[in-house]
Design brief:
Chain lengths: ~300, ~70
Amino acid sequence: MLGAGAILFLAALQGATELFPVSSLGHAVVIPALFHLGFKQSDPDLVPILTLLHLGTAGALLILYRSEWWRIIRGFVRAALRGTIENSDERLAMMLVVGTIPTGVIGFFFVKPLTNLFGDPRASSAFLIVNAAILAGAEVFRRRDERRRRAIRTSDTAPATPSGTSHVAGDPGYAGVERLTLRTAVIVGACQIAALFPGISRSGVTMAAGLIAGLRHEEAARFAFLLATPIILSAGLLEVPDLGGSTSTLAIGAGAAVLAGVVSYLSARFLLRYLRFGRLDPFAYYCAALGTAGLVFIR
Amino acid sequence: MRPNVLAAVALVVVAVACAAFAVFYWTTKTSLFASDFGLHTKHAIFFTALAVLALIAANFARRAGAARARR
């Protein structure tokens, strides 16, 4: 039986890690094992609680992008009925649909087997290191591309590219989400399949793929959050009919969902602000450190 | 048949198949593609969504075929 403290801790952990590119599922598996917290993955209350927490995160994303989602939904309905795409809202809606389908289909059939297969703390620690490699690899690719573009541009018109962990804010050399092709959107969306392995971050792989596809950092994060919303929301809603657990657990879970939503909202706002100048490297270092600690200290 | 019309027809067939699966999962206890024997409403919802998406894709393919024919 999960106590109120454990549930609230899970809520804060889920809210902070679901949208940061550091894998919430990996944290939910590794952190309790690493710090010997008194709950296990097999606890019957854990699945309903995690479901509610996911709904909290999805709610935060819906609130964060509320006006955009309203335009996207209207654009989707209009384009679906008409059979053609005529403006950027309709295009974005269709990109989100085609980007969500591969993960939705694979996830629906394979999420439980994969989670059962790789859901032990040491495997998750190893996948956290893989996640670090993905984030760092995307930034290495982006730095090379920035250097190549800078070399091509004439020196008097080119903005200086800061080194280290920052980049040029709103770099005009890179695109917004609406400039992606539908095919690229499918590929970026399909990268979320990797996040079925506990330790690989959904937002992390999508941001990495977005960077490689030529999106600006903050646009890669925006596309990652928009792509994540239907998946997180539907995963949560589909589990609601099966919610078990005691009434008191569910009541605490509902409160925890609100907490997870608030923390998710603040995390997303922070990340969008940070990525206007920052890069993904610090998250890569963090995942590498946590994964290594997991492999060393978890027996 | 033009390729886009063919794609539209194929997508309608996919939509019908998905709809059939959806009805099956709504009405029949089964363990097909599932871990246990029983009514699987999640599977039914999933296949309903796929059927709707396949119909939308068919609409896009049909309109693209019509536009190509006009050119």
